[in-house]
Amino acid sequence: MPAATPRERIGWLLRVNRRLAPDPRWRTGKVFAAAFRPAGDRPLAESQITRWESGATNAPRAAIRRYEELLGLAPHALTTLKDALDRANGCAAAPAGEGDPRRLHGLLEVATGSGPITGPEWDELTELVRARPGLILHPPRLWQELSQRLLTELAVAEDSAWLQRQEAMSRLLGHPDAGAHAVDACIRLAQDTGNPVVVEPLSLLDTTAHPDANRHIRRTIAAAGDDRALYGALLGAVRKIRARHFTRDELGDIGRSVAGLLGDPGLAGPLRPLAVQVSRALAGEVPRLEQRATRPEARLIAARVCSQWPVDQPAELTLGELVGECLHSDNPDERLLSAMFVAATPLREPVAAAILDRVVADLRGRRDTGLDAALRSLTTLGSAVHRPLIAQILTEREFGDRARYAAAWATPHCAGAFPEPAWSRILAVQLAAWQRAPDGLGREILHGVTYGIGTDNHRGLLHRVREDARMPPEARTTASWLLTTPALISAGG
Hints:
The chain has three domains: 6-73; 112-282, Serine Threonine Protein Phosphatase 5, Tetratricopeptide repeat (Alpha Horseshoe); 386-493. By secondary structure, it is mainly α. 64% of the residues lie in helices and 0% in strands. The protein has 26 helices and no strands. It starts with 5 loop residues before the first helix and ends in a 10-residue tail after the last helix. The chain has helices spanning 6-19, 29-36, 46-54, 61-71, 79-88, 101-111, 119-130, 141-156, 159-173, 178-191, 199-203, 211-223, 227-242, 248-262, 271-282, 296-306, 313-328, 332-343, 348-364, 371-380, 387-395, 401-408, 420-436, 442-455, 459-467, 473-483.
């Protein structure tokens, strides 16, 4: 059976949220349709709800916003997912209109000032900017300030707040005047060795064909230096190649670089699947929905969850696809987006519990293949259910380097928080492990632990990491960088 189309996935998102809404009134399509339009307006036909939720017709952004309002969801919690899915499939909708210029000026004033700006406000501001391709700011450095602030917030935001800022940044990158400044901001952040966020600013460059973006992606792949930078560049290159951003000579350079990577037996494990994807994109291969098959374990997880909830079989099939992608896809962007689709529904915690059971069973069987993707998927789901397991892996000596690396990099932006004494214990154990084997993964494990301490907002511990000469340089510079960023942004903020 073919995988769900993007339109069907949006329909799934709407249907699951409505059918599992806390307010039982909305579980009946007829009642929901009757309430959809303001009193006195022409009623919405129940069949229209069915067409949107089945994917028979495309649900416009305004309709999705109305779902958010009626279901009591955070503003833009669902619309941002539609934006991200449309962008991933190269079919972003045109702006609805230029909107009120006074609103644009007001939002620009907030965004270039020192006061807080929320994810929905970033969304609205960049939609207004996108609707004005001829917009020019004076002085031009305002674009740079806007881009730098947005990227800094992206580094510390969580859940839907993070996705809203990523989509907002993609709109700036695609704007005729803002684009060059946004590209420069992405490159500067990626080159900042103290910043823990390297993949995102590089992969975001897939939005634009700007020559500076092309050049930086090509050079990063050729240099094959820092693994995180190479990871981000390969991820960005896949979509840029398919979007025909590169010249023939640039494609030739990338092809030679990737051939060298694939011929290197020492290439880090997570990098090889991405290098293969770049090679396939260069060869003109396009993934086809009908070639995908949901893995049995993903189907079992979906069946277990849906047996406890009033979810129909088509919704269960789509859930299985999403779970399979977030656990097994070779493309990190796809893993992330699939997990965020599940996270935007009431199924997030039941799915998280089922995935955790599978992870625990694998660890008991001494299997850690896929542990990194599974733990990070649990973090992306916005669940804290795996926090006890993370603490166990990072404080008990029975776990190997791969498990500790997976646990460390699942801590940044994980729901909930470890108290300071727990983090102190984790730091002490992992520092001792790195000192015993300084050539292993210990350096990157401490790097991930430091980032997790930062997103849990323990600034006192960050000061300790920064000042501790025994810590690896990456952890100390990341602690310093995190100490200079604004306070963390709450989910939806």
